[in-house]
Amino acid sequence: EPEVTQTPSHQVTQMGQEVILRCVPISNHLYFYWYRQILGQKVEFLVSFYNNEISEKSEIFDDQFSVERPDGSNFTLKIRSTKLEDSAMYFCAITQGARSTDTQYFGPGTRLTVL
Amino acid sequence: AQKVTQAQTEISVVEKEDVTLDCVYETRDTTYYLFWYKQPPSGELVFLIRRNSFDEQNEISGRYSWNFQKSTSSFNFTITASQVVDSAVYFCALSEARANNLFFGTGTRLTVIP
């Protein structure tokens, strides 16, 4: 099973502030994903990223969200102006193989708390 | 549109009992993939099993077994001789060949009582 880490493990921020969540896969991967899980609810897809481009995004992934791989290693999710309802666990996922339909493995998550 | 239904919100069993977690899915695609993930109290999502739509063979892995039935659009998960460490939220998920995102069910919280 491929390893992926996420930093920070917990982020507390004030409403309106920008946050950047980081995902660091241990080895090279082609497909990257972000999901979120509001406390006690199901896991929801945000965005997929392939070959330095967004492959798909959900309705949740609006203009306040952006993703990039600035150095070819870290995969980041930026939330420009956080809202209270952005409080959630954010999971990064990667696939081990070269196909988009390969199994997704999740990082440990970043808990974002917006005050 | 795709849909995953986990009708059991919470289940409690006594240790060593068997338990089955139900998952019913909907998709218009003929090629799709089904998954189970475990979310223990620590919060991470742990991959358990993957099934392709063209492979209806059931699978057993230790105390875990999965029953995939296309005729009823179900992908049920059975834990035999449950243990306290099995206590977690279990999510069933679906992805379609034309879209690579996972669509999750609402999860079933399993509590195994010692």
Entry summary:
The complex is a heterodimer of chains A (115) and B (114). In chain A, 0% of the residues lie in helices and 52% in strands.
Structure description:
- The complex is a heterodimer of chains A (115) and B (114).
- Helices cover 0% and strands 52% of the residues of chain A.
- By secondary structure, chain A is mainly β.
- In chain A, strands 2, 4, 5, 6, 9, 10 and 11 form a seven-stranded mixed β-sheet that branches. In chain A, strands 1-3-8-7 form a four-stranded antiparallel β-sheet, with no helix packed on it.
- In chain A, strand 5 and strand 6 (53-57) form a beta hairpin.
- Chain A is globular and about 40 Å long.
- Classes of the chains: A mainly beta (115), B mainly beta (114).
Query: For this entry, what is the oligomeric state of its chains?
Result: heterodimer
Q: What is the overall pLDDT average of chain B?
A: 94
Tally of helical segments of chain B: 0
Strand content of chain B: over 45%
What's the total count of β strands of chain A?
11
- Report strand % of chain A: over 45%
Largest sheet of chain A: 7 strands, mixed
Strand segment tally of chain B: 12
Order of helices and strands of chain B: EEEEEEEEEEEE
Pair with the most extensive interface?
A-B, 26 and 22 residues
Roughly how many Å apart are the termini of chain A?
36 Å
Sheet having the most strands of chain B: 6 strands, mixed
Based on the model shown, name its key terms.
heterodimer, A: 115 residues, mainly beta, seven-stranded mixed beta sheet, four-stranded antiparallel beta sheet, B: 114 residues, six-stranded mixed beta sheet, 12 strands, 0% helix, globular
